[in-house]
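Protocol step 4 of 6.
Sequence for NAD(P)/FAD-dependent oxidoreductase (Kineosporia babensis) entered exactly as in the expression construct, tag removed. Do not edit the line below.
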Amino acid sequence: MTDEVVDLLVIGGGPAGLSAVRAYREAGGKGRAVLVSADPDAPYDRPPLSKDFLRGDQPEDEMGLLDDGELSRLEVTWASDRVTSVDTGRKHVGTRDGSGYTYRHCVFATGSNPADLPVPGGDDSALLRLRTLEDGRRLKAAVAGAKTVAVIGSGFIGCEAASSLRRLGLDVVQVTNEFSPQENRLGAEAGARIAGWLAEDGVRLVTGATVTALDRDENGVSIRLDGQDDVRADVVLLAVGVRPATELAAEAGLAVHEGRIVVDAHMRTSAEGVLAAGDVVYALNNAAARQLSVEHWFDAETMGRIAGQTAAGVEDATWSDPPGFWSQIGDRWLKYAAWGDGYVEALYEEGEGDAFTVWYQDGDGTCVGVLTYLADENYDKAFRLLS
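Step 5 output, structure tokens:
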């Protein structure tokens, strides 16, 4: 067993973790830096997993986030290992392979894991998820010999994957408990537009469906539905959301709110020298003047940058950007920005051609979010209003 003293220890090799290391060095952070990742693959771009990578348009060797020689230039050690314990009093971290680290600053960037479906058979390991590059490899291998694929869930990952799988020539059915995809988050009009796009791509939608069980046999999977006909498929992709990977943080005694690590606008946790960033945090946003939970790629990078700057001693590094993301369903790009804690009214506005905008307002008529398709001017305007 080895024990090293490090100035910066980052737990997690996703966008938040890598961004933290980069920002730490760019801000003048000195000393030894180590990034410990349980993912065996070096940092990679996750958004293409449900789009270009799944369709075969982007090979693995084009998905890496690291430039040639970047780890060496950053003077950071990449450790493919799993952290098993964090003692915030001793400022000590232990790992599965027996290594130990005493840190000056530690950043939790542990991300999220795909959620199971809470029904009989919903935790079957043979069901496919799509979160990591290895998940993507498994999905591509599974559908290569399949004719029918069922996607359970109508979030953006589910919709993106359903469209991509259909473009591979597979018979795709998408099962959702919503009456149209993303209706609960984006409103009925936007949900109807997304449903229309999926139908154009040849995806069969089963809406308003409650899954009661998943039964797998040697010929595929039967999806049992309450009050509707069962759905049968060779392959099933679960896309029913994620759960933050905060078990380690909770065991370490960090303040946690509804399964997420509580941090301030500088990404500082309740423990001295410990920061957190990305999907795992319940973070104070200065512009919103309240804590927010966000699961977006762009925001994970932003939070990671702030955590790295804070660790390097930058006092005015704070989170104030409106959260947001882009989603590609087929060849259609949606752009979304919102504070993410609800709205009172969704105002749907048609644009030229197929363009549209949805303006989200609170009870006082204040803009709290926007969704656009082919309406970048409205997106930019709303982003300024949110800011």
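Step 6, annotate. The chain is about 25% helix and 35% strand.
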